[in-house]
Amino acid sequence: MTLSFRGGLCRAALAGALALAGLAAQAIEPGQPLPVNTVAGPDGQPLALADGQARLTYVDFWASWCGPCRQSFPWMNQLQDKYGAKGLRVLAVNLDARREDAQHFLAEHPARFALGFDPQGALARRVGVKAMPSSLLLDASGKVVAVHQGFRTEDAAELEARIAQALGRPLRRALHEHPP
Fold it and tell me: Is 135 a domain residue?
Protein backbone atom coordinates (compact mmCIF):
# COMPACT_ATOMS: atom_id res chain seq x y z
CA MET A 1 0.00 0.00 0.00
CA THR A 2 1.48 3.36 -0.96
CA LEU A 3 -0.53 6.45 -0.08
CA SER A 4 0.62 9.83 -1.37
CA PHE A 5 1.57 12.74 0.83
CA ARG A 6 -0.13 15.98 -0.06
CA GLY A 7 2.06 18.34 1.97
CA GLY A 8 4.81 19.34 -0.42
CA LEU A 9 6.79 21.39 2.12
CA CYS A 10 7.96 18.43 4.21
CA ARG A 11 8.63 16.38 1.08
CA ALA A 12 10.63 19.23 -0.45
CA ALA A 13 12.62 19.78 2.76
CA LEU A 14 13.47 16.10 3.02
CA ALA A 15 14.37 15.82 -0.66
CA GLY A 16 16.57 18.89 -0.34
CA ALA A 17 18.32 17.54 2.73
CA LEU A 18 18.97 14.19 1.06
CA ALA A 19 20.12 15.86 -2.17
CA LEU A 20 22.54 18.15 -0.32
CA ALA A 21 24.07 15.12 1.28
CA GLY A 22 24.48 13.55 -2.18
CA LEU A 23 22.08 10.78 -1.35
CA ALA A 24 20.17 8.88 -3.99
CA ALA A 25 17.07 7.21 -2.66
CA GLN A 26 15.49 4.12 -4.16
CA ALA A 27 12.09 3.28 -2.74
CA ILE A 28 11.66 -0.11 -1.16
CA GLU A 29 8.59 -2.07 -2.22
CA PRO A 30 6.28 -4.48 -0.41
CA GLY A 31 7.67 -8.00 -0.54
CA GLN A 32 11.29 -6.89 -0.35
CA PRO A 33 13.49 -7.54 2.68
CA LEU A 34 14.98 -4.51 4.40
CA PRO A 35 18.51 -3.79 3.14
CA VAL A 36 19.56 -2.83 6.70
CA ASN A 37 18.84 -4.71 9.92
CA THR A 38 19.60 -2.14 12.61
CA VAL A 39 19.49 1.53 13.50
CA ALA A 40 21.16 3.31 16.42
CA GLY A 41 19.08 3.17 19.59
CA PRO A 42 18.83 5.99 22.15
CA ASP A 43 22.04 4.76 23.79
CA GLY A 44 23.88 4.55 20.46
CA GLN A 45 23.83 0.74 20.44
CA PRO A 46 22.34 -1.09 17.44
CA LEU A 47 18.58 -1.58 17.64
CA ALA A 48 17.02 -4.28 15.46
CA LEU A 49 14.41 -3.00 13.03
CA ALA A 50 12.63 -6.36 13.03
CA ASP A 51 13.41 -7.90 16.41
CA GLY A 52 12.02 -11.38 15.63
CA GLN A 53 9.64 -11.15 18.59
CA ALA A 54 6.98 -8.85 17.13
CA ARG A 55 4.65 -10.23 14.47
CA LEU A 56 4.64 -6.79 12.81
CA THR A 57 6.85 -3.75 13.23
CA TYR A 58 5.62 -0.30 12.22
CA VAL A 59 8.78 1.71 11.41
CA ASP A 60 8.13 5.45 11.20
CA PHE A 61 10.69 7.96 9.91
CA TRP A 62 10.27 11.41 11.47
CA ALA A 63 12.01 14.72 12.16
CA SER A 64 11.47 17.54 14.63
CA TRP A 65 10.65 20.02 11.85
CA CYS A 66 7.89 17.84 10.37
CA GLY A 67 4.39 19.16 11.10
CA PRO A 68 2.51 15.93 10.34
CA CYS A 69 4.86 14.09 12.73
CA ARG A 70 3.25 16.04 15.58
CA GLN A 71 -0.06 14.42 14.65
CA SER A 72 1.36 10.94 14.10
CA PHE A 73 3.04 10.56 17.51
CA PRO A 74 -0.17 10.42 19.58
CA TRP A 75 -1.60 7.99 17.02
CA MET A 76 1.51 5.75 17.22
CA ASN A 77 1.24 5.79 21.03
CA GLN A 78 -2.35 4.57 20.66
CA LEU A 79 -1.28 1.88 18.19
CA GLN A 80 1.40 0.57 20.54
CA ASP A 81 -1.02 0.58 23.49
CA LYS A 82 -3.82 -1.10 21.54
CA TYR A 83 -1.90 -3.69 19.52
CA GLY A 84 1.38 -4.22 21.38
CA ALA A 85 0.08 -7.28 23.25
CA LYS A 86 -1.15 -8.68 19.91
CA GLY A 87 2.33 -8.56 18.37
CA LEU A 88 2.77 -5.00 17.04
CA ARG A 89 5.96 -3.09 17.73
CA VAL A 90 6.18 0.60 16.85
CA LEU A 91 9.67 1.97 16.16
CA ALA A 92 10.12 5.65 15.26
CA VAL A 93 13.42 6.55 13.58
CA ASN A 94 14.49 10.18 13.92
CA LEU A 95 16.35 11.84 11.04
CA ASP A 96 17.44 15.08 12.74
CA ALA A 97 21.14 15.87 12.41
CA ARG A 98 21.13 17.23 15.98
CA ARG A 99 19.87 14.98 18.78
CA GLU A 100 18.85 18.10 20.74
CA ASP A 101 16.19 18.87 18.12
CA ALA A 102 14.74 15.38 18.53
CA GLN A 103 14.82 15.65 22.34
CA HIS A 104 12.95 18.96 22.23
CA PHE A 105 10.28 17.39 19.99
CA LEU A 106 10.01 14.35 22.29
CA ALA A 107 9.57 16.59 25.34
CA GLU A 108 6.46 18.03 23.66
CA HIS A 109 5.32 14.76 22.03
CA PRO A 110 6.39 11.86 24.28
CA ALA A 111 6.80 8.41 22.74
CA ARG A 112 5.59 5.22 24.43
CA PHE A 113 7.31 3.12 21.78
CA ALA A 114 10.84 2.30 20.65
CA LEU A 115 13.05 5.07 19.25
CA GLY A 116 15.95 4.89 16.83
CA PHE A 117 18.22 7.61 15.45
CA ASP A 118 19.57 8.03 11.92
CA PRO A 119 21.23 11.48 11.96
CA GLN A 120 23.11 10.89 8.70
CA GLY A 121 20.03 9.55 6.94
CA ALA A 122 21.74 6.28 5.95
CA LEU A 123 18.75 4.06 6.68
CA ALA A 124 16.32 6.58 5.19
CA ARG A 125 18.40 6.57 1.98
CA ARG A 126 18.52 2.78 1.82
CA VAL A 127 14.74 2.43 2.03
CA GLY A 128 13.96 5.45 -0.16
CA VAL A 129 12.24 7.80 2.27
CA LYS A 130 10.78 10.64 0.18
CA ALA A 131 8.24 12.26 2.52
CA MET A 132 7.96 13.02 6.20
CA PRO A 133 6.82 11.09 8.00
CA SER A 134 7.18 7.85 6.06
CA SER A 135 6.52 4.40 7.41
CA LEU A 136 7.14 0.77 6.66
CA LEU A 137 5.23 -2.19 8.02
CA LEU A 138 7.55 -5.16 8.48
CA ASP A 139 6.86 -8.80 9.16
CA ALA A 140 8.82 -10.71 11.82
CA SER A 141 11.61 -11.53 9.37
CA GLY A 142 12.08 -7.92 8.25
CA LYS A 143 10.25 -8.22 4.93
CA VAL A 144 8.30 -5.11 3.94
CA VAL A 145 4.54 -5.68 4.05
CA ALA A 146 3.44 -2.08 3.32
CA VAL A 147 4.87 1.38 2.64
CA HIS A 148 3.20 4.66 3.50
CA GLN A 149 4.26 8.26 2.84
CA GLY A 150 3.11 11.21 4.92
CA PHE A 151 0.50 11.28 7.65
CA ARG A 152 -2.97 12.75 7.59
CA THR A 153 -5.69 12.01 10.11
CA GLU A 154 -7.71 10.60 7.20
CA ASP A 155 -4.95 8.00 6.67
CA ALA A 156 -4.97 6.76 10.27
CA ALA A 157 -8.08 4.58 9.97
CA GLU A 158 -6.82 2.86 6.82
CA LEU A 159 -3.38 2.25 8.32
CA GLU A 160 -4.83 0.90 11.55
CA ALA A 161 -7.24 -1.36 9.65
CA ARG A 162 -4.32 -2.80 7.68
CA ILE A 163 -2.39 -3.48 10.89
CA ALA A 164 -5.40 -4.98 12.69
CA GLN A 165 -6.19 -7.16 9.67
CA ALA A 166 -2.61 -8.48 9.49
CA LEU A 167 -2.49 -9.12 13.24
CA GLY A 168 -5.85 -10.89 13.17
CA ARG A 169 -4.90 -13.45 10.54
CA PRO A 170 -2.70 -16.51 10.88
CA LEU A 171 0.93 -15.39 10.80
CA ARG A 172 1.91 -17.03 7.51
CA ARG A 173 -1.07 -15.62 5.59
CA ALA A 174 -0.90 -12.15 7.15
CA LEU A 175 2.76 -11.66 6.42
CA HIS A 176 2.95 -12.97 2.90
CA GLU A 177 0.14 -11.25 1.11
CA HIS A 178 2.72 -9.45 -1.06
CA PRO A 179 4.76 -12.23 -2.68
CA PRO A 180 8.41 -11.44 -3.43
Answer: no
Residue type, 48: A
Residues 71-91, mean pLDDT to the nearest whole number: 96
Name the residue range of residue 85's domain: 8-29+39-128+150-171
| pLDDT tens digits along 96-142 | 999 999 999 999 999 999 999 999 999 999 999 998 999 999 999 89
pTM of the model: 0.80
- Domain assignment present for residue 14? The answer is yes
Q: How far apart are CA 88 and CA 71, in angstroms?
A: 20
Residue 59 maps to a domain: yes
> Among candidates 59, 58, 111, which has minimal Cα distance to 87?
58
Determine contact, residues 45/86, Cβ cutoff 8 Å.
no
Tell me the angle at which helices 153-168 and 67-83 cross, rounded to the nearest 10 degrees. Answer: 30
The answer to whether 123 and 92 have CB atoms below 8 angstroms apart is no
Q: What is the CATH number of the domain that holds 108?
A: 3.40.30.10
From residue 40, give the alpha-carbon distance in Å to each of 3, 46, 115, 124.
27, 5, 9, 13
